Amino acid sequence: MKLAVEINSNETVVTLPDGQGKITISSMIKAETDAVNLYLKDGKLTGIQDQPKANQADGVIHIEPAQKQEANYLAKSFSEFAVEQGLFKKDYLENIKIPSDQRATIEKFRDLTLTVLNGLGFGSRFIPKKKFKGKPIHRFTSQISQIPFYIEHDGAKATVYWQKRNEMLIKAGAVMKLKPTLNKDGSLGFSAKFALKLRSDHEGDFKDFVTTKDIVLKSVNEVGLFLYFAGTNSWLVLRDADGKSINEWTVVEE
């Protein structure tokens, strides 16, 4: 990958290929609008978007995608990633929802910027390099099958069990989100179409968007699609009674 780099006294500016945006690494602690703001202290990630207290940051990385409206969604994706890596205990941007039809594009751009940061020497300091190769692996155990996980997200509410390796049980009485978020042109995205197909397959199992029977699906992702049309990382949405996510319970540390 070829990058254009400009080094100044207080900052380094990296222009991404093909006009995709730029990354600015700065010692001047301030937030930039229309950008993802990653705050660092001694090379460790200490905040995303919300500026930490003065003694909690000594540098900041501004990531400015060419499509300005994507900055909030990209920040959300970084927040999810940080939680998956164990850098944060919770998703501080949980109120931001990535449209399901844009998630793949957002995550592809996020991975591009992570690759660049790794090449500049930041990856090994605050984002594990080994995680660049793919999504986290989650391991099913008999212990996990006994734990109820709760969902309260985007109008949906449910109790869920990961009862077998390929079986997620949604208990009767779950509340479903009424309608999917549409694309800008008013059409349904791929995820929304798949979610509606899931609902069609179980049309006799809910009434007025409340489930009347226990429903078994194949994965955490299917649960998210069925209940709230996805749009976020469902491994971070399902939480036990103490607030610990199903990701924290099951992710495999490599």
Walkthrough of the structure:
With 254 residues, the protein is of the alpha+beta class. The protein folds into two domains: 4-133, no CATH class; 144-250, no CATH class. Helix content is 26%, strand content 23%. The chain has helices at 71-84, 103-119, 123-126, 190-201, 220-228, 234-237, 246-250, and strands spanning 4-7, 11-15, 21-26, 36-41, 44-48, 59-65, 149-153, 156-164, 167-170, 206-207, 210-211, 215-217. A six-stranded antiparallel sheet has the order 1-2-3-6-4-5. Helix 1 crosses helix 2 (103-119) and helix 4 packs across helix 5 (220-228). The longest helix is centred in the middle third of the chain and has 17 residues, at 103-119.
Strand order, main sheet: write it out: 1-2-3-6-4-5
Number of domains: 2
How many extended strands?
Answer: 12
- Reading the helices and strands in chain order gives EEEEEEHHHEEEHEEEHHH
Total DSSP helices = 7
| Low-confidence regions | 128-133
Rg (CA only): 20 Å
Morphology? elongated
Cα separation of the termini: 27 Å
Summing up helix and strand content along with how strands pair, one would put the structural category as alpha+beta
What is the percent of helical residues?
25-40%
